[in-house]
Specification:
With about 350 residues, the protein is mostly helical. It has helices at about 1-10, 20-40, 45-60, 70-80, 90-105, 120-140, 140-150, 155-165, 170-180, 220-225, 225-240, 245-255, 255-265, 285-300, 305-325, 340-345; strands at about 185-190, 195. The longest helix has 22 residues, at about 120-140.
Length: about 350
Amino acid sequence: MQRWKYSATLSGIEISSLSRYTDDGIYLKASVQYWLDTEYYQQEINAKLGREVERIYIRRRMDGIIDLGEMLMDIGTSLESFDMEDAFVNGWDVANKVSDLLILRMGKENSPCSGNMTPFKQISDKIDFESVVLSNIIRNKATMSKFALIFSSTFKRFGFLRDILEGEAVWSDVEVILATMLGYRVANKLEFELVRNQTLCAYGWENVYLFPDAAFLMEDIKSSNSEMNKRFESRMAVDIPEDEGSTDVLCESLVGLETYALMKAISSSSSTDTTTATTTATTTAAAAAATSILNEREGNEVDASEEEAQAARRRVLLVKWLYVHGFVDADFPATTKFIPAETAKNLL
């Protein structure tokens, strides 16, 4: 009886936003097994139940189910005929847990009775991270292969940072650099097997599963402000020293004093009035520098749209993060763990 009451409370909640059926199924499989292994006891049936939930979920989503209550009922009913062997739960226990997991997956707040969902959020992040990284980097595998040669030159690396600041960097190239900095390496060049080497991962990011999407540096608030992008930006900011003098000097050397001054002014601007912005979404760094000089001469304050402010802030932050983690100081790709200067001081 409880199952009917519970599913009724979920009726009308749509899961249509979960459009990556395969990734969502993998998430459910891993989460169900983790839940059973940690809440009860590690046994073979736990993995079997996880795989069965994955199979049912993907099949029913492909059948067009988008209602959470309906999905719960279908999983519970299907598991009634599944051999539960010596599991510590029944099919409806699993179905109810799946509903909690899907609510979390959609970024919605779970009920207090759901218990601690933090481990499942970490599972979700890891799956999203690996899905984005692997699919995007494999798509650009030729780029990853050649970057090891191109960026063996420190001069080339400085040039790449300048391109990011000026908005000239190609996003697919940024993806490859980020993946490399996060420890991904080609393990099998013939089959292009990509593995993550935690010993070569950026310090402090070993168990962090965040990766931005292609809209991260765009001047489009709606597209660029996905939950993952916002969390990635916040996590990067943690690594920047409180005294940003050294990283500011780097940026000034890359694009010049005037241009970088304008970028900082734009990034701190709170204006959303695009009609009074001194630059537009297509303004180049050179034009921006000219605008800055003009504003100084006329005594005007720099005003920028919210989109420009966010894009400028993220470009600066990305360059500083790469610098802090040894992009220009260490070998690329790194062959040993690089310890940021501020961290090294604290370790003494």
